[in-house]
Amino acid sequence: MTTLDTSRAYDVEAVRADFPILRQMHHENVPLVYLDNAATSQKPNCVIEAMDRYYREYNANVHRGIHKLSEEATTEYEAARLKVRKFINAGSKREILFTRGTTESINLVAQTWGRANLKAGDVVVSSVMEHHSNIVPWQILAAEKGFTVRYVPVLPDGTLDLDHLYNLLAKEPIKLVTLMQVSNVLGVVNPVEEVIKKAHEAGALVLIDGAQSVPHMTVDVQAMDVDFFAFSGHKMLGPTGSGVLYGKRALLEAMPPWMGGGDMISSVKLSGSTWNDLPYKFEAGTPAIAEAIGLGYAVDYLNQVGLDNIHAHERDIISYALERLKEVPGLTVYGPTGENKGAVAAFMVQGIHAHDVAQLLDSEGIAVRAGHHCAMPLHEHLGVSATARASFYLYNTHAEVDALIAALHKARKTFKL
Ligand code: PLP
Description:
The protein is of the alpha/beta class. It has two domains: 49-303, Aspartate Aminotransferase, domain 2 (3-Layer(aba) Sandwich); 306-414, Aspartate Aminotransferase, domain 1. The chain has 14 helices and 17 strands. It has helices at residues 12-17, 45-57, 68-87, 102-117, 136-145, 162-171, 192-201, 221-224, 249-254, 289-305, 307-325, 354-363, 376-382, 398-414, and strands at 25-27, 30-31, 33-34, 96-99, 123-127, 148-152, 174-180, 205-209, 228-232, 243-247, 265-269, 272-275, 331-334, 344-349, 366-367, 369-371, 387-391. The protein starts with 11 loop residues before the first helix and ends with a helix. The mean pLDDT is 96. Bound molecules: pyridoxal-5'-phosphate (PLP). Pyridoxal-5'-phosphate is lined by residues 38, 101-103, 131, 133, 180, 184, 209, 211-212, 232, 374.
């Protein structure tokens, strides 16, 4: 599957060799430096080939056909579910729902559990640092149901104001705490285990947005004791259109379905219908089959390289990047800088708009993102309308960080700073 010799120290060049896009020139003669991994990750050969194989050799619908192709597709699709179950240590494959991504997973919880359980007088707690996908679904439902959404503030060092959260838990009728594990802007790693424990003591359920954690660190949903856990396949080397909602079985069993249609029913009569078992109750219609299979192969690849190795490599790269970014005059990095920071550096260069930074970096072959990164309330809190963001992954190198720093110096010169 990979040329990687896993018995050796982390071999970033061998990892890079598994990603065909990284061999490409970005512009005519500038090599691609891909530093936009928080938006989406690149895909290794094994994922691309697995999806190609599905379409070339056994393309068929799942769970329905009696023919060989359909059986093969079903076997691979369900094998992917088992791989994901093991990857996050869920207790049962019935607790792994395939979705299109983190956004759909969170909306699923809001529209099923939320719709059935939240009413006027209840409180849902989110935070100022959340991605829009963990703010807007709750606002939409709150407008209909009349419950309140409160937001935990962010402290000046870029960490969550936990005292504020624990005060809320002590005083208010909180039904759900819904937080990100790792921020896609600040990079901060939130202490979700502690939060889950305190929330449970106060009688609240917890949803964790793992979009920026699952690709980068070991996640054990049972050890965490989390109630719902959402993540996206495309940020962890898998295809777009693949994602997961983990939910504790008892909660999922009690939740009504969301979308109705094929596969999610046990029987349909004109007088009414009954629902299929988990996880199919929440997977109406033809699912993203190739995408789920691709995600399974991404999990295989991450396991083969080893999440602990990936995490250590990223810590090395982000520490190096944070040190070197200090050399650029007028550059501010947002969020913490210690061990509690993932491989994300959102920054601003005084005198250059973030979009101009990104455009100038692009002309040097360096792909970063600029904007509010779907975190407008956080940017309002930071007092900036936009930041540039370099985000790293298992295939990034010190040389790429050097290229980023050189390009930032060049950008300042272009702006005569
Ligand atoms: N949550 C976080 C922390 C994210 O970074 C993202 C994507 O950037 C999302 C949620 C939404 O993920 P998706 O667009 O894959 O649904």
